[in-house]
TrEMBL record:
Keywords assigned: GTP-binding, Isomerase, Nucleotide-binding, Nucleotidyltransferase, Transferase
Protein name: mannose-1-phosphate guanylyltransferase
EC class (word): transferase
Native source organism of the sequence: Sulfurimonas marina
NCBIfam families: GMP_PMI
A Pfam family the protein falls into: NTP_transferase
Family label: Belongs to the mannose-6-phosphate isomerase type 2 family.
Membrane-spanning segments: none
PANTHER family registered for this protein in UniProt: MANNOSE-1-PHOSPHATE GUANYLYLTRANSFERASE (PTHR46390:SF1)
Amino acid sequence: MTNIILCGGNGTRLWPISRTLMPKQFVKLFNEQSLFQLTVQRNSKVCESQFIVSNAEQYFLAIDQLEELKQVNNKYLLEPIGRNTAPAIALACWALDPNETVLVTPSDHLIKNEVEYQKVISRAKELAQEDNLVTFGITPTFAETGFGYIEALNEDVKAFHEKPDEQTATNYLAAGNYYWNSGMFMFKAGVFLEELKKYSPEIYNGSMQAYKNVNNHGMIRIKHEDMLNIPEDSIDYAVMEKSDKVKVIASDIDWSDLGSFDALYEELPKDENGNTVNENHVAIDSKNNLIHGDQRKIATVDIEDTIIVDTGDALLISKKGSSQKVKKVVEEVRKNSELHNIHLTGYRPWGTYTILEDSIGYKIKKILVKPGKRLSLQKHFHRNEHWIVVSGTATVQVEDKTFLVRPNESTYIKAGEIHRLSNNGKLPLILIEAQVGEYTGEDDIVRLDDDYKRD
């Protein structure tokens, strides 16, 4: 059985912890492990292999975190743009044997009752091998208005329901045969594609053509124009709500989608006053607060039932119970900044960079290049760059010259010069980059050659 792990996400619901280029599944929130890593560990116990479906800008985060788990030889499918879950799952299924049973899971959910989880997976596998499309209905614990519901008669699905109002959700809870829609599925790859062809033929045909146009079936990269030709739709709307082969497994697995800071608060360890544990928090007569931040001291006086999130470049303060409105904050932030998109520390396939200072006319970064990695061959139109090596040895190419720069040495690249930075050593390369120019935005990069096939 193959676990298809969906790694999309815009990083809006847990902003500013999560961003577009660091969505919540890759943030290490639980004992220095991410939700993505917990998903892989959990499903490795019931599946023989992982198939990662990711945005092309994020896949290297998955690779790095899988290396930490010593998980190798995984399969990857990279989407240039997101088109929702139905195309993503279809593209992955085209790459598998039609008889392969697949467990489709998001990468950003928390499941704490693994014993019960393995039981429901076992039952789902039995139903999937009988050519059913299986979904997992979470046994509700309260009248939640933020989830869709599945109405069931034993293991048969009677109907899918949109997010209800509070009274309707209360009625669902009392009825006892309504379940939260978890977004997890199991079926044979070929059976899903047959049902997709029957009920959403445009997605079926578009995904089939996109897969046919793939050049390398090792790291599967879908072409941008092919992705655009696939209609955008969820698996629920495209197939599950229309098919007569759908079964539902009632799943009491201590599940959370961590879709808000209120949900996150419930899952984090707390002190005797109900504040989330944080060694940087100084609490004076404060209780029942979510406090997140590891860069500065956070002191609270007579503060209760509040969410305080400090990431160095952004500060969020919200009443508990109102954190669903964070998405509205992100809409405002993206109008005049990049804070919705990336942290002070940005992650790249070759390593990381951290912005130390950013002002009009200049920007200072700390750059870390992993051993054996190199940046793209590139040039900039609006900035000059000064590189000072702190540790390791840099191999620098500027136009037709290549030379080494060692610790305490520096080099200078003029605007418009073609250049590349490489780490050919066995230790991380750390340098300070000072950018000086009329514009220092990240989009002032013209890539001429790139190991990671980025535009």
